[in-house]
Amino acid sequence: MISIFVSVLNAQTIRWADENPNLLLKPNEVFVRNENKIQILSKHQNGEQCFVSTWDDSLRVLDFNNLRFNKEKPMRMLHAIEHPITNQTFFLLTHFENESKSHQFYLLEFDDKGKIVGDLNLIFSIQAEKKASFTLNMSYSPNKSNIALVIHKVENSNRTSLEDFHSYIALLDSNMKIKFKKKYTMPNLASKVEYVYHWLSDNGTMLYYYKLDKKGTFAFSSGPEFINKFLIVNNQGQTINELAIEEPETFFTDFKVYPSENNFLIGGFYSNEDKRSSLQGISIFEIGLQEGKIVNSRSISFNSNFYQRVTGSQNASKNELKGISNTYKIVDFKISAEGNAIFVAEKFDRQIEYINQNPIGFYGFGMRDIDYTYVYSWGDILTFSVSLQNEILWTNLYRKKQILESQNWISSYDFYNRNYLADILPVSIYTKLVGNELNVIFNDAKNNYENQMSEDSTSKFKVMALRDFRDSRTYLYNINLSNGDEVIEAFFEDAYKLGYVIFPKLSKRIDANQLIIYGKNAKSERIGLIQF
Q1: DSSP alpha helices (H): ranges in 331-462?
Q2: Which of 186, 179, 116, 187 is nearest to 147 (CA)?
């Protein structure tokens, strides 16, 4: 395989919007309007205001509206929705009704100038205390004909009991009309789950996922004491089937779901039960929409070329015995035009550092206060392709490492499946398939990039740990899906010169050749437009 690295001289440049202190520019949503207009929605922190700005393709402001949702009764904006076929756009608003003690959720239409053009459309009214909080999950079907809005009540604890656990489902058609809405009750299980997510098919069938602990205690362990559970629910909220993905000698450590036209495709790493600290291969299976059963399943063991590229070792037998680190998390899983499975993974690790402080007793003996810090690291980017003949066609690895110390616990699954902390930490990578090319945008230390470019093979394994995100440089990693050839650019070099740190996960591609990006420094925030 030939790797091609592009120098800084060929790096892409950004067309920056003019600095305007009156515009809040962190993009919650970006919509493409008629006549090459770009509409950017920026939500105020409390959600009671939304800034809607309209720009031309030179990033000059055409219109600006500051919408307040608390004129008649206090409302907060949760999200904004655009139907990709009709370009209808709606706010999703929430309001607590004191008399009925209920949380109400509404859709409210707005136009290409950011002005409200319709009336409030009630979706849900959920009985709960005023301080109750909810999460919204939204998904499109592959053909964009259906949109699912699913609301869950958030418990105070990270561990959520499935007893009396409810999902509030609304299915919208291509005209943004509600096909049905329903309160769906999960099966009554005396256990705990870490998270619940869903995906939507063309006919409105949904796939729910949750991680279940076998012993019914907690779901945060990393071994075979937990199993992956899938619920297949039809377009009326009725359960078609319930699957427990568990094999006698293997367990899945991480996966992604790709809704296809007729099935749900699921791709995930697996480990052998006696080697839980490593990954031995990738599994791809399909769940049919009619009966909700697995209709096709295949497992692909990592081969010697894969191990050699990832570990750098020439000893194939040692590599296969050891496997690779099970800290790799799947960031993206897609199917190419040829039917090959494309995986993008990142090495994510979380450790706890314990510190003994303030000894109580004589000469330091006795009770001590124990403090601890979570140490997070975002590492190597691993990409590979699997053919329909179960061959690993190519494997690429970019080595990097970013470290954050925090008192807060971060779920790895939440981090990679929601925009969790995306507006705080510039470490979440952005991925997109465009034609026959995979685009990956990420931040890294300059030294790591230069080591990747070096002709000295030993320098490629020297990885600098980046602890100060203000020193982040942004890079564009392009991969040819046919042969795996790589192109790495020192992307957005002018952003660093201007003192801006780019937040990759907040990027919004407005067409095949243009991307809206967001950056900020200690004093200001700014948006820019990149032309590929």
Answers
A1: 412-417, 446-453
A2: 179
pLDDT-derived band at 382 (thresholds 50, 70, 90) equals very high
Quote the pLDDT of residue 323. Answer: 75
β-strands 294-301, 281-288: how paired? antiparallel
Q: Report the 10 Å Cβ neighbour count for 435.
A: 9
SS3 assignment, position 448: helix
Q: How many residues does the chain have?
A: 532
- What distance in Å separates the CA atoms of residue 379 and residue 377, rounded to the nearest whole number? 6
Q: Could you give the residue ranges of the DSSP H alpha helices within 127-239?
A: none
pLDDT surpassing 80 at residue 29: yes
**Please, what sign has the CA dihedral across residues 318, 320, 326, 327?**
positive
- Range list of β-strands (E), 3-45: 3-5, 14-16, 29-33, 37-43
Q: What is the dihedral of CA 112, 118, 120, 124, to 10 degrees?
A: -70
Task: State both tokens at 193.
Answer: 């789950």
Residue 305 scores a pLDDT above 90? no
What pLDDT, on a 0 to 100 scale, did the predictor assign at position 273? 59
Strand order in the sheet with 3-5: 3-5, 486-489, 473-480, 437-444, 430-434
Mapped onto helix, strand or coil, the DSSP state of residue 316 is helix
Least confident of 23-27, 175-179, 290-294: 23-27
Q: What CA–CA distances, in Å, run from 382 to 307, 348, 404, 439, 474?
A: 12, 11, 21, 13, 17
pLDDT score of 380: 94
